[in-house]
């Protein structure tokens, strides 16, 4: 009983501290759709700059010109097919990277033997940019779809592993003491304490993994792609179509922003029990 009471006391203090911090920072009321304010403000600045001539068309096409180019690509070219092709590469590669990174993190985080085998190679890979390994991947897998998916998977694996592993290793030792006191088995302790405790780290890693996957997508689609947003940008570069290039960049940006927003919203729902500055 004493141990349980002692374990729950910091939680109450954390809640009080979080409320105090939020009150000192400002009103705690959340703004609806706040994540769209920044992008809309950037669009407004872009529009005003283009309309007033501050942003020259040679430097950056105006938003209305980009909208016309988007409509032309959608109606007269295969923009929907290019979008689906890019999404397919990104989703398959990201899924493989997330699953592999999470499994490796769990093995390494819950086992000293697993950590000794897995953690070293991952840390070495962390210091070697994945994009620098692309020539080797081309030699192994060719320049087809396999190389592109493997690159995206590997570039998104590392952040998932790092943050999930840190989350597993960062579980408060007081929970282990409490589990021993009340006689929870190791399996139940892992399922009900360790894995939920590592979930914030996993979701943080997901945000970095999504960004990394899109970075890898941008690069690999420059290699002999016959479909995809990168293929469209490459063709537009050859013909000097800056408005089409901006269309591709905007689509990449929308991909990334929507994916990151989805992860953030998921984290907010899943981790509703945690008192943070966001809450």
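Sequence proposed for the structure above (279 residues):
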């Amino acid at each position: 009983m004493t141990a349980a009471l002692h374990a729950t006391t910091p939680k109450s203090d954390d809640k009080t501290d979080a409320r105090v911090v939020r009150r000192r920072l400002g009103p705690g009321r959340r703004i609806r759709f706040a994540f769209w304010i920044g992008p809309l403000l950037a669009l407004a600045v872009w529009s005003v700059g283009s309309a007033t001539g501050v942003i020259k068309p040679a430097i950056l096409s105006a938003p209305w010109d980009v909208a016309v180019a988007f409509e032309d690509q959608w109606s007269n070219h295969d923009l929907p097919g290019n979008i689906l092709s890019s999404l397919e590469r990104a989703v398959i590669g990201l899924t493989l990277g997330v699953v592999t990174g999470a499994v490796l993190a769990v093995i390494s985080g819950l086992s000293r033997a697993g950590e000794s085998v897995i953690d070293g190679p991952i840390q070495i890979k962390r210091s070697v940019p994945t994009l620098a390994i692309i020539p080797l991947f081309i030699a192994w897998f060719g320049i087809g779809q396999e190389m592109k998916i493997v690159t995206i998977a590997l570039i998104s694996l590392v952040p998932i592993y790092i943050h999930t592993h840190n989350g597993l290793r960062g579980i408060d030792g007081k929970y282990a003491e409490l589990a021993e006191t009340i006689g929870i088995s190791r399996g139940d302790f892992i399922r009900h304490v360790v894995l939920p405790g590592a979930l914030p780290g996993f979701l943080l890693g997901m945000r970095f993994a999504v960004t990394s996957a899109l970075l890898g997508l941008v690069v690999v689609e420059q290699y002999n792609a016959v479909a995809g947003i990168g293929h469209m940008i490459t063709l537009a570069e050859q013909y000097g179509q800056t408005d089409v290039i901006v269309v591709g960049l905007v689509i990449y940006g929308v991909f990334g922003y929507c994916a990151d927003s989805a992860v953030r919203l998921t984290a907010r729902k899943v981790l509703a029990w945690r008192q943070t500055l966001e809450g």
